[in-house]
Write a structure and sequence with these properties.
By secondary structure, the protein is mainly alpha-helical. Helix content is 79%, strand content 0%. Helix 7 packs antiparallel against helix 8. The longest helix has 24 residues. The chain is elongated. 10% of the residues are buried.
């Protein structure tokens, strides 16, 4: 049996350790607590859009890109350069989320599908802008 002094030291160490654990738990930020309602809604909208893009891509990549080009939030009131940058960002997020290879937007098949989608939307200006912007 341990002496009273050893037992007291152990109790003191256990008490200090428990206090440290409580302090760490209480000061660790919780992501959901820090996010505003607007941020949570925006995240939910992005996830919903990714699901829609996945469903459209199940039909064809051209269909998915046409859906993206129709998106009012990506194209509304922006310059051509801003619109392309928003498309690139959206497609990068989508690609990561669904497990596409990093260079999937640089393939000839993608460019062909993008060209078809832009023509379907009667937006020839997007084709040249996309080609100029894809040195990312």
């Amino acid at each position: 049996m341990a002496s009273a002094l050893k037992q007291a030291k152990r109790a003191k160490r256990a008490k200090t350790k428990a206090k440290q654990a409580r302090t760490i738990r209480s000061t660790t930020p919780k992501v959901a607590d820090e996010m505003s309602v607007e941020e949570l809604q925006e995240m939910q909208e992005v996830l919903e859009e990714i699901k829609q893009m996945e469903a459209a891509e199940a039909i064809s990549q051209t269909e998915m890109l046409t859906m993206l080009l129709r998106d009012k939030e990506i194209s509304a009131g922006k310059s051509l350069e801003e619109e392309i940058n928003a498309q690139i960002l959206a497609l990068m997020v989508y690609g990561r989320r669904v497990g596409k290879p990093e260079n999937w937007m640089r393939t000839p098949e993608f460019l062909e599908a993008y060209t078809a989608a832009a023509r379907r939307m009667d937006r020839e200006d997007l084709i040249d802008a996309w080609i100029k912007a894809t040195d990312f």
